[in-house]
Amino acid sequence: MPKTSSTPLLRFAPSPNGPLHIGHAYSALYTWQAASLLGGTALLRMEDTDPERCKPEFAAAIIDDLHWLGLDWPEPVLVQSERFDIYADAANQLRNAGLLYPCFCSRAEIAAAATESDPDGAPFYPGTCKHLDRGIQIERLERGDPVQFRLDTERAMALAGMLSFSVAGPLVTDRPQIRFARPEKWGDVVLQRKGTPTSYHLSVVVDDAEQGMTHVTRGRDMEAATDFHVLLQMLLGLPTPIYTFHKLILDDTGKKLSKSKGSQSLVDLRALGWTPQDVRQHLGF
């Protein structure tokens, strides 16, 4: 059940699929600063739903880096890989409402059929399997074909009507402004894959509600995804927190830092002699 809190609650929710870099440090420090300005508390959450990439040693290193930066949080830390049954229940709620359908398309097939892109630049799913004959669906599911389950966003929006959410300025204490959500720009998003009962989009809205998040701080690269999260919150009967979008830390080429690109980690900086004060000063805290 969603929690309600009279105290502002925020969270920093890294994926333990590699070491933290300076961009993660900025996001963490920003979140703890926001919690302080609001007179609230910042929580730590481990978003480790990808068993192939997320490792316990990365989670331990994240905790070590955050403590090194001088940050702390209430225990216990919520760990998403321990909550798959809860996410599956949320997906079943959408399935029972007739809002999920199986999709058997490969990434290559989607890329070949797509004529536009989603806000992240990925091929926009053209709805190939949305109207697949029910008998064929059952046959392929029973055969064990690779499958993912997508939200029928058009139908979901017909149920939801016009959606809006509140966005606070960079200081988070600024008066929030109302923004209208446009989840249709994402199309039919994957919420489950065979063998994985959740996706980032599904688990994040479930956990934000269960932990009673009043405010969510996230980078501007997540601004567009928030529109889709607001839709899921409405469909699942969950509250919508106030959102704040902070700047991104970019590399020398002007691109976002990334674990997958091997961006310099906090461990690397520590080995070079950086102190927590150096990191804070470098990032403007």
From TrEMBL:
GO molecular function: ATP binding; glutamate-tRNA ligase activity
GO CC annotation: cytosol
Domain Glutamyl/glutaminyl-tRNA synthetase class Ib catalytic: 11-275
Keywords, comma-separated and alphabetical: Aminoacyl-tRNA synthetase, ATP-binding, Ligase, Metal-binding, Nucleotide-binding, Protein biosynthesis, Zinc
KW Methyltransferase (keyword) present: no
The protein, known as: Glutamyl-Q tRNA(Asp) ligase
PROSITE patterns xrefs: AA_TRNA_LIGASE_I (PS00178)
GO biological process, alphabetically ordered: glutamyl-tRNA aminoacylation
